[in-house]
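User: Sequence recovery, please. Input:
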């Protein structure tokens, strides 16, 4: 029992260290030695728990994905009003990705390499996003005249692209605008309110 607790504790220290390094350097810039140094252990011990950077990253990614996708599904399939769903979607998505900024770019890279395998692996039967109720809700609001005529697909794309793109383009924003980590994080916290306000104001009658 004591050894298992110790193993679990060491593994969690390694996972947290890896999260810190991946956030700072990204998946491709991080090295196993960086992670070992961050965790305060030697590289041999790190390899005892995780024999490759890819496996370590995959575990961290799956933990974050399993946290994010159910939350998104819960929002999209709730009985909340359309505007409230837009607000909650932005808040939930940005909250998770601020703490796991490598998620969007990693998803895009993996999807482009083997979309079928990746989607099955990440989503499975439980996590697969189901926007059908949300799309029907948009269509119903258009018919009722409460929002301006807009394609449900286009509205969904606007919502996704406005939340995802800043994280994918983070290095560009930081280099061209001179943003440090704190400033970028603060800007993304602001976007939790700015995105829904922009979208809702654009479709509200």
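Assistant: Recovered sequence (205 residues):
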């Amino acid at each position: 029992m004591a050894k298992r607790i110790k193993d679990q504790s060491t593994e969690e220290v390694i996972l947290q260290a890896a999260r810190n390094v991946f956030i700072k350097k990204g998946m491709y810039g991080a090295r196993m030695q960086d992670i070992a140094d961050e965790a305060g252990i030697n590289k041999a011990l790190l390899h005892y728990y995780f024999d490759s950077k890819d496996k370590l990253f995959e575990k961290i990614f799956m933990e974050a994905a399993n946290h994010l996708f159910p939350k998104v599904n819960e929002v999209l399939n709730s009985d909340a009003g359309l505007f409230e769903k837009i607000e909650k979607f932005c808040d939930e998505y940005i909250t998770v990705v601020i703490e796991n900024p490598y998620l969007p770019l990693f998803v895009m890279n993996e999807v482009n390499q083997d979309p079928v395998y990746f989607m099955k692996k990440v989503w499975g039967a439980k996590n697969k996003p189901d926007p059908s109720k949300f799309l029907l809700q948009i269509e119903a609001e258009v018919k009722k005249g409460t929002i301006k005529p807009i394609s449900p697909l286009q509205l969904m794309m606007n919502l996704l692209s406005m939340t995802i793109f800043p994280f994918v383009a983070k290095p560009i924003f930081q280099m061209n605008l001179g943003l440090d980590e704190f400033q970028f994080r603060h800007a993304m916290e602001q976007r939790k309110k700015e995105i829904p306000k922009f979208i809702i104001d654009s479709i509200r009658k």
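The domain at 64-203 is CATH 1.10.357.10 (Tetracycline Repressor; domain 2).
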